[in-house]
Amino acid sequence: MTTLPETRTSPAESASQGDIASGASADLGLVMGGGGARAAYQVGFLRYLAGQFPDLHVPIVTGVSSGGINAAHLASHHGSFAQAVRELVSLWERLTVEEVFRVDAPSLTWIGLRWIFQLLSGGVGGAVRVRGLVDTTPLRNYLSEVLHAVDGELTGIQYNLALGRLKAVALSTSSYTTGQSLTWIQGQDLDDWTRPQRRSQQAVLTIDHIMASSALPLFFPAVEIDGEFFGDGGMRLSAPLSPAIHLGAEKIMAISTRYNRTTAEAELPNVTGYPPPAQVLGVLLNSVFLDLLDQDALRLERLNHLLKKLPPEERDGLRPLKLLVLRPSVDLGRLANEFEPQLPKTFRFLTRGLGTRQTKSPDFLSMVLFQPDYIGRLIEIGEADAEARADEIDEFIRAGTPSAAEEEPEPRF
Description:
Blueprint: H1 11-24, E1 28-32, H2 40-52, E2 60-64, H3 66-76, H4 81-93, H5 97-100, H6 105-120, H7 137-146, H8 155-163, E3 168-175, E4 181-187, E5 194-195, E6 198-202, H9 207-213, E7 223-225, E8 228-232, H10 242-246, E9 251-255, H11 263-266, H12 277-307, E10 322-326, H13 332-339, H14 345-353, H15 363-368, H16 372-388, H17 390-398
Parallel strand pairs: 1-2, 1-9, 2-3, 4-6, 9-10
Antiparallel strand pairs: 3-4, 3-8, 5-6, 7-8
């Protein structure tokens, strides 16, 4: 099990950390986006944060897709922030492709044959329906074990709510049945919200909600909840910061898994000739799961700039919010190329058939590369990136809430 880095703090800093643990950061919201295996990067950042603020109080936690797994773990863990992160690191370090979905040849062959039969059936009644390209039963079993679910329920969330350590947690999903983005929320004194094509619903969160939020479209099977089928929450969540805002966060720390390429890097071609399916899938998944956080953050920053120019009485119920977005300093897609040879043979054969070796940045592969060596590298990068911004993070964590004059009703975006 990986140990947390030794905390280097002065007595004054230790006293300040005590204030943080007792509620000085009662307005802090943590937002974790998706990206499949890339969510291990978030864990590296959290490991650094736990080393510096082992008793940090994070009352509002939201997640989508694989970031929802991290959010659910933090919200349901009975121990301190440092203990929760330590176990989360261990959870990811033990993760393998086999723990996420079945990759044995018989299983993949059987699913492939069923897909072919369904395509050739012409929709004739009685045809066997395939619900995903892979069987994710291993992931369900793994999460049930490590999250200590009781009959599927994440009982630790209610435990932390009762103690006042947690205010609210949110997991976002996309409904295949209605086409809406639905954010499932659990907390104290919450109000549901409705916006065009997205809304919230209060619920007792379960393994089903996590599985639904992280169900990559077509690749992972959809999950049925209350008579509707749901898939990855990143597909329709046009405002990833919105759940944390609606739940009352005054300052938000958002961890992205998308590398911010320079203009020169963005203009370099990743493929030569006609793009293989892996390249098309990578561009599609990036646009669906990774780009929206950056766009939402830009909107929030612009709105903050405008609001600060107005007196509080003219802000029409809106309020400025503090925002810190952290993202990788390394292209996690390109990095995946180095670790692809260690994939299980059958699965590696299939991914290469999609053209993962024909692109310099196999973003699709990076999302399903649940390999210990790749995951370990992402954790290291996340921790190093956080340490590189140590002063900025420290200032953000210790910053007080906005003045009473700026505490306005819930923003409407």
